[in-house]
Amino acid sequence: MHGGAASNAGTVFKMDATGTVTTLHSFSGSDGALPHAGLIRASDGGFYGATEQGGASGSGTVFRVNAAGIFTTLHSFSGSDGAWPRARLIQGSDGSFYGTTSEGGATRNGTVFKMDAAGTLTTLHSFNRSDGSSPNGLIQASDGSFYGTTLHGGAASRRKFDRILSFVRTK
């Protein structure tokens, strides 16, 4: 999660069967930082991933790198479209990339997004706490639907939050 060049923001590397490691990219912060989720190999042969922080507004990025180390930042999260993508991307059956951000979106409870290989991002859902908060990844099942979990939120969580808020207001 840390390390690489002077920025200590993480790296993308390759390793051969003998254990020899080659750094393909060292994150600088402006191109992303803390690639917590790891990589996926896409159908185009490229490696795609997300950084938890860094980018234009510090809210994380989605990137592509190839085996030769050619690196492209595809999207920098702004907060309103999501922030802090911590889970691994998936490539859907339609060829698009899908992922989650643990923060940001319309109510700052995280998002589910879809992105094409050129980096055009569409927010599919912004969580509102009653339907969950801090989503942490997706899978696509054979029925074509996407499934995931959230770390927080849900109907019971909202009732507990309302009881705490009501208690605080009476004091």
Write the layout of secondary structure elements.
Blueprint: E1 11-15, E2 21-26, E3 39-41, E4 47-51, E5 61-65, E6 71-76, E7 90-91, E8 97-101, E9 111-115, E10 121-126, E11 133-140, E12 146-152, H1 155-170
Short description:
The protein is mainly beta and 171 residues long. The protein contains one helix and twelve strands; from the N terminus they run ββββββββββββα. Mean pLDDT is 90; it is low at 161-171.
How would you describe this structure to a colleague?
The protein is mainly beta and 171 residues long. The protein contains 1 helix and 12 strands; from the N terminus they run E-E-E-E-E-E-E-E-E-E-E-E-H. The protein has one helix at residues 155-170; strands spanning 11-15, 21-26, 39-41, 47-51, 61-65, 71-76, 90-91, 97-101, 111-115, 121-126, 133-140, 146-152. It is globular, with a radius of gyration of 18 Å. The relative contact order is 0.12.
